[in-house]
Amino acid sequence: MIHFSIGYILFYIFLSVLSYWAIVKHLKYQKYLEEEVLIRSNHILGVSIVAPAFNEGVNIVYNVKSLLSLTYPKYEIIIVNDGSSDDTLEKLIVEFDLVKIDFYYQEKIATQPVRGHYKSKNPVYSKLLIVDKINGKSKADAANAGINSSQYPLFLCTDVDCILKRDTILKLAKPFMENETRVIACGAGIRISNSCDIKEGFLFKVHYPKEWYPRFQELEYVRSFLFGRMAWSQLNGLLLVSGGLGMFDKDIVIKAGGYWHQSLGEDMELVTRMRKYMHDTKEKYLIKYIPESLCWTEVPSTRKIFLRQRIRWARGLVQTLYLHRKMFLNPKYGRTAFLVLPFFFSFEFLVPIIEFIGILTLIFSFIFGMIDYQYLLIISLLVYLFYLSITIISILIDEILYKSYANYKELMVLIGMAALEPFVYHPITIYASLKGYWFFFRRKEQNWGVMVRKGYESPTKK
């Protein structure tokens, strides 16, 4: 177990160095190909924004208006009403003057039946398309219906409650246009909108979350998006492009079979299947990541909803690894087989189990008086300081590059939360992971559940 811990730390040091190098490289390269040049190009790629919506009546109008304000010369917005039981569709029809239209719908990916397509009579909303379908009991089914309805070669999958920066489409589409090797997916940083100043679907000012669970999740997001995923992007080893914000090559997604509607981690499973397809067809490919925060989303603020989400994530991880187990150490799949999947198995799946075994070992050692307290203290302190260093470096790099918070007081509170995370928050995530594994192996059913949102309709403080 000690050797495993040392290997874990050394690998994360390697990833940290690689992340820093990748961020510096990204910032330097931006100067060589200006985004304004791409916008004026005759070869700019069209992008379809696909946003599934289920019972989003509280925010739907504001969110659609926010998406309509994005700056990109060639894009469409596809809102998929996934059989909502509230007034989501009615609000859209009234606000945007929608009428049902004849639409040539090709079901390239199988989904639940589509009841109809709606467009606005007002030319101001010409970019907007509403897809009304029977509920498929998963975001994946709704996203597939949106992909089937899209007209452009790239699609950006997002959650309808997400708030995107105005230049999000351009920044995500840029890697697809500037790389000689085919880019099949691209992701970017996601941040937490809880406690931010938001009015009518637009982000006015970023604030550090006031509630405990969102505060700890903010730490996770900064660390994982800025450090972990930048390193894997540099290695061309990304296995996860977040379902909240990810742009994809539509042709490859369709050929790979689209989102799997039975998956509990549909974003990770799709990327794994896309990688498999590219290896099977012997095509070179890249999956890129941008070290910029382009999306803000509301996260669970209560223990109950947080645990439900993380249990599902854990089940999704095991499910994906199990489904694609034949890729492990298979020479046909290159670095995916020998680096990416072994990493996720060893350092994502096994770590909660090893930590739990370690805790049990400590308890029994304490009971039978077999603990070397000095050795335990030294090892624990080293691991804690390593974790704290990685987290603080992530926070500071993010602040230096992007000035994400309203003031330095919020930044210091965030650093203070980092010191508490291993003792307060981390045990809860370990519990959720173990419970998710247990549910998976026991084949216990788990629905997606409802993410109760507070919404953004209330006026913001100025």
From TrEMBL:
Q: Which UniProt keywords apply?
A: Glycosyltransferase, Membrane, Transferase, Transmembrane, Transmembrane helix
SUPFAM superfamilies under this entry?
Nucleotide-diphospho-sugar transferases
Query: What enzyme category does the UniProt record give?
Result: transferase
Q: Where, by residue number, does the polypeptide cross the bilayer?
A: 6-24, 336-369, 375-401, 413-434
Give all residue intervals belonging to the Glycosyltransferase 2-like domain: 48-91, 213-387
The protein's matches in CDD domains, at most eight in alphabetical order, are given as: CESA_like (cd06423)
What family does this chain come from, according to its entry?
Answer: Belongs to the glycosyltransferase 2 family.
Question: What is the protein named?
Answer: Glycosyltransferase
